[in-house]
Structures are given as C-alpha cells and as structure tokens.
Input
Amino acid sequence: MTRKWSINRRFVAAALLLALLAAPTGLWAAITTFDDVVPPFSGLGPWVIAQDELRIGITSDGRVEVDAGSVVNSSAAEVYLGWGPATTGTVLITGGSQWTTLNTMSIGAHGVGALRVEDKGELTTVAGWIGGYDPFGPGEPLAS
Output
C-alpha cells in the first residue's frame, strides 16, 4: 500500500505540472520594474499603487513592463514617465494587460517619456500630459 501511495503522489504532481504548463497565459501574468522606479514592484499582478505618485526615471532611466494579462491600478497616483531632466521613463503595456489611473499621466515630465501600448494592451487615464513643463526642463515624449 505505501508504494502505491507514492506512485499516485508522483502521478498527481506530474499532472499538476502539466496543467500549469498548459494553462492560459493569464496565470503567468507579470509586472516588472527595472532600475529607477518609485515605488518598485516585481512579481505577479495585480499592482495597486496606493502612494500619491509613481515616478519612472527619477535620477536614472527606469522602465515598467506590464505583460500577459496583468493589471495595474494607480487610481490615486499621478504617473510620471521621465521625471528627471536627464532620464528616460518607459512603460510597455502588452499582451492584453490593463493599466488604469484615475489621475494624470505625464509622458516626458522633465526628461524623456516613452509609452508603448501594443498587442491588445489597454491604458485608461483621466488626463495626460505629453511633453514636459518647467522648472526642470522641457521634457520630450517618444512616440511608438
């Protein structure tokens, strides 16, 4: 009996592994931050940003990738891409992922901002700025 139980346990473990590998991509959703992003996040979604601001590219370049059906909710946060005057802030929303902010998104706030929404990705925002504003510099959006 003991031997039969261990064989069944191995079978169940193998079946679970196969089921996970065959699962829809939504189970493998990912949100990843690179370099200069405050507040940072890395792991499985959803990402709910409770702070007042999300800054991407403050003193050096920063990047956020939202992939494979992930969800970002920065409802109260103002989002800045390219916050610092000599930095680039990049956001990529792809693979059916969604980013919702009920505040403003500034692309190229004081530096360079790059926003890419592709492959059924969605961005919803109440208001947005393209190009920067003084006192730090003119800002520059990158379109793609």
Q: What stands out?
A: The longest helix spans residues 2-21. The helical segments are 2-21. The chain has one domain: 26-143. The CA atoms of residues 12 and 72 lie 34 Å apart.
